[in-house]
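TA notes, week 10

Several of you asked for a full example with nothing omitted. So below is the full record: structure tokens for the whole chain, then the designed sequence directly under it. When grading your own attempts, check the secondary structure regions first.
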């Protein structure tokens, strides 16, 4: 990197005070570089330096400072777009080898530019001022970098008349990223590039620096986390497709999804350790370690076995000996040969990508959607809440450090994971990945989900959350935070139906939480049978603990109460959330729009309004959950303390919002399910901008304004003073 490039700018101004015209001959005669540029004036009509002058000064300084070799540089090189299309003409191209002109001549003759496109190292884009930075990077620099067909990194640099610059990188078909990824924001597109935070001129790498940066990812045994590029939307889909092809050809013996989770937990541990201790990564395989039959040599097995030993110390819930699917014996023989073949394929797929740097927070949902069985997803109603919706609900709840949050239908634990990130955002900004997750709880009836949930928590925290496999309607966690009631123990014989306190032993009272955030199963197709034809999906004595079961129906003409033959599980989970909240607690729950609106459930709404202060509701569009087409409403509510019951009696304002744009679309491409970002379209150019087409950000601002005019108890409950 240079510490004197600005000095050469000044020398150029002194050396060429009367420069009027700059053309390709000027470049050849004064710098010795090739150029295809047209003749241009050095100053504009107002006497200011022109774009051509700024570019010429930059090229002269690159060469005369010794940072770049002149024979590798071309000014305004033309890359044809497609067959006969208009060419792209980057301001400055630095090639990988000095024979580029010979390759160019051959490409022109054959009309095949594949080789020359692989030969690009750096592209520079110039502007005379900073008035069109976004457009220059989006439409010129980015487009030029995308023409590269090499699997090596390609680099891009934007500069203008300011004293600092912007440096980018790109590998394969990935999106371009800032060269220093710590400058980026946690968003996609232009906004995520954080263009207002520029790189210093002295941070511009030299030609050799860029070459060595490319070489840094070629020696797999000497990779560190800082060497790796992040997983982004484009290459994540490629990674998923690679795993699917590996599964199709290898057919591993262990459950696929659980095995992927186990192996990726190893990689996450390896990355976190490398970040913390500045050590080389161990999650790799070199070509010499892969045998012709797809199995691995002993050196790889020893390295992976050691990685398991170290990782299970930090993540015993995922990698504890009794939970592991894959092992080596004392002679380093794999427990299942095909599982090792799949491990080798997965390591090859992920070894040059960083999971910790990924912006894609839907990582675990994509694994579930791509590798969970279709029957499992459909039969069990497992349509997990998309991350933008989860993050929005968590931001409205605004958890702070030390508050306990529970999701009684946690699936893969996105609500606890995003709550952890929200409460620890300042520590995570400093890349402190080792905050404790002990205040977060997740319960799910499906044990297979919990392993993926553990990976989610490992990715987002320390994996220390409390997870339990249980049916949250018929089983409860006791106040000791350890004991789970067995099926048949949560009944009217043991518990009070109004308070859910134990009738005779306070040690068996249920644990309460400061927050509940959940998206429970709901809808007609998943009703619980509650006496229909004598069938009860849960014990009658358990169902009778639910007041909503008794409140749903009106009295008949004779004044008798007839209990329903079935119950929407969403209603039962609504009551479960209320009764598992502490006094002064708050909740966010996704329910069917019908529960929140139609006459069938009016008694349930009356019951709920008598117990909870509804603070806000917002409706989600039917495409929120992909192909399900479910219309949903999110309810945000507060459970008043005993001395705050007046909050339920007086007329009060409720925050109401109708979400139209969610910022993504669930798509299936090449058999891989992913969440495709949806960007706002520029109405003049009809091109995508870098801003997501979503209503959540505006809603969060409106929510904060709404809370400012609410009662003090509501403001304090949602920590308004600490809200972003």
């Amino acid at each position: 990197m240079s510490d004197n490039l600005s000095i050469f700018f000044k020398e150029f101004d002194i050396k060429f005070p009367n420069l009027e015209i700059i053309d390709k001959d000027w470049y050849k005669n004064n710098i010795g570089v090739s150029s295809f540029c047209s003749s241009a004036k050095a100053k504009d009509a107002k006497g200011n330096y022109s774009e051509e002058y700024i570019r010429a000064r930059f090229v002269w300084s690159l060469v005369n400072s010794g940072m770049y070799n002149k024979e590798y540089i071309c000014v305004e090189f033309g890359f044809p777009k497609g067959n006969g299309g208009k060419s792209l003409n980057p301001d400055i191209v630095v090639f990988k080898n000095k024979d580029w002109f010979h390759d160019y001549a051959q490409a022109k003759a054959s009309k095949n530019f594949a080789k020359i496109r692989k030969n690009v190292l750096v592209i520079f884009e110039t502007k005379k001022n900073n008035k069109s930075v976004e457009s220059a990077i989006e439409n010129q620099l980015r487009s030029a970098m995308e023409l590269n067909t090499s699997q090596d990194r390609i680099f891009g640099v934007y500069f203008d008349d300011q004293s600092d610059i912007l440096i980018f990188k790109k590998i394969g078909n990935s999106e371009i990223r800032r060269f220093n990824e710590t400058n980026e924001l946690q968003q996609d597109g232009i906004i995520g590039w954080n263009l207002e935070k520029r790189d210093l001129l002295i941070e511009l790498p030299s030609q050799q620096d860029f070459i060595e940066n490319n070489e840094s990812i070629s020696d797999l045994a000497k990779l560190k986390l800082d060497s790796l590029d992040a997983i982004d939307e484009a290459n994540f889909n490629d990674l998923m497709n690679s795993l699917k092809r590996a599964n199709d050809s290898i057919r591993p013996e262990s459950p696929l999804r659980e095995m992927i989770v186990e192996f990726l937990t190893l990689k996450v541990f390896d990355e976190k350790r490398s970040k913390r201790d500045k050590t080389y990564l161990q999650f790799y395989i070199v070509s010499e370690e892969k045998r012709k039959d797809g199995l691995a040599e002993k050196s790889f097995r020893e390295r992976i076995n050691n990685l398991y030993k170290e990782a299970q110390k930090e993540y015993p819930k995922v990698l504890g000996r009794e939970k592991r699917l894959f092992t080596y014996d004392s002679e380093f023989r794999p427990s299942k040969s095909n599982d090792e073949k799949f491990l080798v394929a997965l390591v090859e797929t992920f070894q040059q990508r960083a999971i910790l740097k990924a912006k894609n927070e839907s990582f675990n949902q994509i694994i579930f959607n791509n590798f969970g069985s279709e029957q499992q997803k459909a039969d069990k109603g497992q349509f997990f809440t998309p991350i933008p919706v989860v993050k929005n609900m968590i931001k409205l709840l605004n958890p702070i450090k030390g508050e306990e949050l529970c999701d009684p239908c946690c699936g893969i634990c996105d609500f606890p994971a995003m709550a952890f990130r929200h409460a620890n955002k300042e520590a995570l900004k400093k890349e402190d990945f080792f905050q404790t997750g002990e205040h977060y709880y997740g319960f799910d009836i499906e044990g297979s989900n919990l392993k993926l949930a553990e990976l989610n928590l490992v990715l987002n925290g320390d994996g220390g959350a409390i997870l339990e496999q249980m049916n949250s309607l018929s089983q409860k966690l006791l106040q000791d935070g350890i004991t789970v009631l067995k099926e048949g123990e949560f009944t009217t014989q043991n518990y009070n139906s109004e308070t859910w306190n134990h009738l005779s032993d306070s040690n068996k009272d249920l644990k309460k939480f400061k927050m509940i955030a959940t998206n429970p199963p709901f809808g007609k197709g998943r009703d619980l049978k509650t006496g229909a034809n004598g069938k009860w999906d849960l014990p009658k004595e358990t169902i009778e603990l639910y007041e909503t079961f008794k409140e749903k129906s009106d009295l008949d003409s004779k004044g008798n109460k007839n209990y329903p033959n079935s119950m929407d599980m969403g209603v039962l989970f609504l009551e479960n959330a209320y009764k598992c909240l502490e006094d002064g607690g708050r909740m966010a729950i996704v329910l069917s729009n019908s529960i929140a609106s139609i006459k069938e459930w009016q008694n349930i709404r009356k019951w709920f309004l008598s117990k909870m202060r509804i603070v806000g509701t917002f409706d989600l569009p039917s495409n929120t959950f992909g192909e399900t087409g479910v219309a949903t409403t999110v309810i945000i509510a507060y459970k008043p303390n005993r001395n705050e019951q007046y909050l339920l009696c007086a007329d009060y304002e409720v925050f109401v919002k109708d979400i139209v744009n969610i910022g993504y679309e669930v798509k299936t491409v090449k058999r891989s399910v992913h969440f495709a970002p949806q960007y706002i379209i520029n109405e003049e150019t009809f091109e995508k901008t870098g801003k997501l087409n979503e209503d959540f950000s505006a809603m969060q601002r409106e929510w904060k304004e709404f809370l400012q005019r609410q009662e003090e108890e509501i403001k304090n409950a949602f920590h308004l003073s600490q809200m972003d």
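The two ends are 38 Å apart (CA to CA). Use that as a sanity check on your answer.
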